[in-house]
Amino acid sequence: MPAALAHLEEIPNDLRRLELEGRLLDGFDMTERDATGLRLVESRLERMELMGARLQGASLCDVAVAGGSWANVAADSMTLKRAEFRGVRLTGAALGNGSLEDVVFADCRVDLASFRFAKLLRVRFESCRLEEADFYAASLTSVVFSNCDLTGVGLAGATFVESELRGCKLAEVGNPERLRGVRMPWSDVVLAADVLALAVGIEIVE
């Protein structure tokens, strides 16, 4: 990202297929706006409100997002490459069929979000809330979940390769057998023994 970014003074009326490079977007309200096919390169978004916005097919490359809300954003088939989200609310975000490569989510709310059929490569979730997020048939390669709440996460059809869970809550995870192949510290394995036992069909008795 360039050392200095040009401050975007005003959001255009038509955001569809808009291309922006080397820009700082600060505090704009894009609630329920149509930004289908938006392309952002080497830019930073701060305190942006994108609740319910439409970002289908958008592409964000070398982008940092700080604060603000992406709740219920419709971003199917979005491409995220070398992107960082910090302190962003993504509750209910639809990120299905997307491609996420070299992406960090830190201190974010990603609960109820959908990653159905998405491809995640070298993605890190750090101290995030992911309750009831949906990873149906998602492909997760070199993905790390660290100190995250994964309560009720859906993993039906998901595949993990060279991925890791550390310090995460795994209560009521759906289809826990799909965690096959992930790495976990022994202390975490002990804490999640009931979930992992269910995954291999062990019946727990008193």
Protein architecture, described:
This protein has 206 residues and is mainly β. It has one domain (6-199): E3 ubiquitin-protein ligase SopA (Pectate Lyase C-like), CATH 2.160.20.80. It is built from 2 helices and 12 strands, in the order E-E-E-E-E-E-E-E-E-E-E-E-H-H. The chain has helices at 186-191, 193-199, and strands spanning 6-7, 19-21, 23-26, 39-46, 59-66, 79-86, 99-106, 119-126, 139-141, 144-146, 159-161, 164-166. Strands 1, 2, 3, 4, 5, 6, 7, 8, 9, 10, 11 and 12 form a 12-stranded parallel beta sheet that branches. The chain is elongated, with a radius of gyration of 18 Å. The model has no long low-confidence stretch (mean pLDDT 95).
In short:
This protein is mostly beta strands and 206 residues long. Helices cover 6% and strands 30% of the residues.
What topology emerges from the helices and strands here?
Elements lengths: L5 E2 L11 E3 L1 E4 L12 E8 L12 E8 L12 E8 L12 E8 L12 E8 L12 E3 L2 E3 L12 E3 L2 E3 L19 H6 L1 H7 L7
Parallel strand pairs: 1-3, 2-4, 3-4, 4-5, 5-6, 6-7, 7-8, 8-9, 8-10, 9-11, 10-12
